[in-house]
Amino acid sequence: MEQKMKHFGGQRILPAAKNMKQFERLLDSTYTYGIFLDTHVAQLRSIYELARGRNKQMFLHADLVQGLKNDEYAAEYLCQEIRPYGLISTRAGVIQRARQKGIIAIQRMFLLDTIAMEKSYALIEKTRPDYIEVLPGVIPHMIEEVYARTGIPVLAGGLIRTSADVEAALNAGAAAVTTSNKELFRQFA
């Protein structure tokens, strides 16, 4: 548990804002770290200014920015012009560019089947992200396996619906849980 508490100042939940209403709640919350899931490229500068003004460290899911292709050039733009706390992506080029620019890189890994996992492990070996987000995050033994195999801290996301799901993921070794479930935001604030 001590190892996990050093991540994100001990924050166990990374609230993910899917819209401006959720982002506004996050701004008013006690959370320091959060995630933008779905936004438009034209909104990025203003929402990051708002976040910084409220001392929020916001990750950006680069694959979900509308109006911006999710490639290494977009990642370079995001890192230089928007300067998010970190980038989340499934794309190797995005992860590598974020790391080159000194931005925290989170590689998403979908637990679909063994073949997909092996491809993800090969990609992770190439990109060496700062964190791996496993989806769905409700499979505790897979959180343990991914960390054991890569040595990279794991975030659990996707299909986490209850406080028991959060606790199971954390007990399995997740550094934090990513969720857009506002009930969980309140329970773990």
Automatic annotation (TrEMBL):
UniProt entry tagged with the keyword Transcription: yes
InterPro entries, A to Z: Aldolase_TIM (IPR013785), GlpP (IPR006699)
What Gene3D superfamilies has UniProt attached to this entry?
Answer: Aldolase class I
Name the keywords, alphabetized: Glycerol metabolism, RNA-binding, Transcription, Transcription regulation
One Pfam family of this chain = G3P_antiterm
Q: What's the domain of life for this entry?
A: Bacteria
Job of this protein: Regulates expression of the glpD operon. In the presence of glycerol 3-phosphate (G3P) causes antitermination of transcription of glpD at the inverted repeat of the leader region to enhance its transcription. Binds and stabilizes glpD leader mRNA.
Matching entries from PANTHER family are given as: GLYCEROL UPTAKE OPERON ANTITERMINATOR REGULATORY PROTEIN
By what name is this protein known? Glycerol uptake operon antiterminator regulatory protein
Protein species of origin: Paenibacillus lacisoli
